[in-house]
Specification:
It is a single chain. The protein is of the alpha/beta class. 27% of the residues lie in helices and 26% in strands. The longest helix is centred in the last third of the chain and has 15 residues. It starts with 23 loop residues before the first strand and ends with a strand.
């Protein structure tokens, strides 16, 4: 992973000597927690199979799990953790962009995968700065929407709505799962929030890369200004849980499926790695009501999970998991 050197934003990052006049195409991938952003990113990286692709991966917690799940045609990944980009516009993101701009050979494309609570409108504002536009050309903001749970999230959060409003292209993901009346209702809710964006359906989180080259819709300024206040606050907590023992994987799966069925409106996302008493490692991910536990070769010393949701604590996480822990 690359960590950019410190840059003082007040001195004007990206103001150094130009190495070459080439501009970099930028694509921002946003969407609420668990909507399928990494799946979309991998799909695009495999389709952008010529040229150099760079990625900025942003994670809320202290451990970036998604970075291990990115695959395809990519040259470098810049990692920003412990905060969402919408709250770090004058520091980490500027530093990463400055390092990219000063490279002798610049990439063709830069994909930015935001956290699930980032405000893409505030994030995109940096690319409207004149000195940034000299190097970076923001092509499109793409928003992933999980059609199974988005209605609930729109009721309980402001982040999901802001992401939809800011976007040029909205992907209604997992569109094969709900019935047609439910899918039509979700599509209507999304259209009411952003009647200007292009909407497409996807069953697996992928989208043809040609959709990224279509002209963007023209949005009135009042639409954007009302959607993106300067101050962003989140009623969302992140809990890092490291287990002191191994897990009974089958029992854990049953426990979490039950909990997510009941509490999915408050437990937005769980992701991490767990070990069983045979030393086998599994990747665990949840999004809404969906849970996936798959065996992986990723080396980990101990089981650890990141919980993201409303009013979560480590005690709550422990209560959810403790019955599946194997006593040493």
């Amino acid at each position: 992973m690359n960590h950019a050197p410190e840059v003082n934003p007040s001195q004007g990052p990206l103001n150094g000597p130009k190495i070459e006049p080439k501009t970099i195409s930028v694509y921002i991938i946003t969407g609420f927690l668990g909507s399928g952003k990494t799946t979309l990113l991998n799909s695009l990286l495999h389709q952008f199979d010529s040229g150099n692709n760079f990625i900025i991966e942003n994670e809320i917690g202290q451990v970036n799990i998604d970075k291990n799940l990115v695959s395809g045609n990519l040259e470098q990944v810049f990692e920003i953790t412990n905060g969402c980009l919408c709250c770090n516009l004058d520091s980490d993101l500027y530093n990463a962009l400055d390092q990219i701009a000063r490279m002798e050979t610049r990439p063709d494309n830069l994909f930015i995968e935001t956290t699930g609570i980032a405000d893409a409108g505030n994030l995109s504002a940096i690319f409207r700065e004149a000195f940034v536009q000299e190097v970076f050309d923001l092509k499109k903001i793409v928003c992933m929407v999980d059609v199974e749970v988005i209605e609930d999230y729109l009721e309980k959060t402001t982040e999901a709505a802001r992401q939809i409003i800011a976007s040029d292209l909205i992907i209604l993901n997992k569109s094969n799962k709900p019935d047609q009346p439910t899918l039509a209702q979700v599509a209507e809710s999304v259209r009411k929030l952003n009647p200007y964006a292009h909407n497409i359906h996807s069953a697996d989180g992928s989208v043809p890369k040609e959709r990224l080259t279509e002209p963007n819709p023209v949005k009135p300024l009042f639409h954007l200004d009302a959607a993106h206040p300067k101050t962003v606050s989140h009623d969302i907590s992140t809990v890092f849980y490291e287990a002191e023992g191994e897990f009974d994987v089958e029992k854990l799966e049953i426990l979490l499926k039950t909990s997510l069925t009941i509490f999915y409106q408050d437990i937005y996302r769980i992701k991490g790695y767990i070990k069983n008493n045979k030393g086998e490692v599994y990747l665990l991910q949840s999004a809404g009501k969906t849970l996936s536990i798959t065996k992986t070769d990723q080396p980990v010393k101990a089981s650890y999970l990141v919980f993201i949701g409303r009013k979560l604590t480590r005690e709550i996480a422990h209560r959810l998991l403790k019955s599946a822990l194997i006593k040493n």
